[in-house]
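Quarterly update, task 2.4: fe (ii) ion-bound model.
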Amino acid sequence: MPVQIGQKPGHDFSRPLGLLSDCHRRIERFLAVMAKVATAGALDEDRRNALDAALRYFREAAPKHTADEEESLFPRLREVETARAELGDLERLEADHDRADRLHAEADALGMAWLQDGALPADRAARFREIAADLAELYRAHIDIEDNRLFPLAARLLPMETQQEIGREMAARRIAR
Ligand SMILES: [Fe+2]
Ligand SMILES: [Fe+2]
């Protein structure tokens, strides 16, 4: 199974909202890898490498994306009076992040055991498939709200200087951690 990793993002830190959407494309790509590996059965070398890369992405890189949103973007939107009508979305999105975190933690434990042992007992393999499907469904709706409602709203309401600050914080998160 060919898996692309380390693909260059389409935006840089001067366009943080575009960069956040670029991350969504990576999330979708690695979710598709997880789903494909989960349903493929035995791990050959390609699937092993693909699974390892997907688990690592969700363990190491994806939490920075969540921090970009929860620590840099959402607080700025909450400060904007005219964004208040949309704030229900922010709470829903934060709840999604928490649920995704729990599912990823469980997927990571199962996936690491799979990599280590070369096989998973049937019930644990079934649970891994179920989690991959749940995550795909969760992110489909979540990313739709972010890409199509929240980021356009942020682009409209947040001054360019604020967007630049968000970009600087995102850059720092990737150097410091
Ligand atoms: Fe996101
Ligand atoms: Fe999000």
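Highlight for this quarter: The mean pLDDT is 92.
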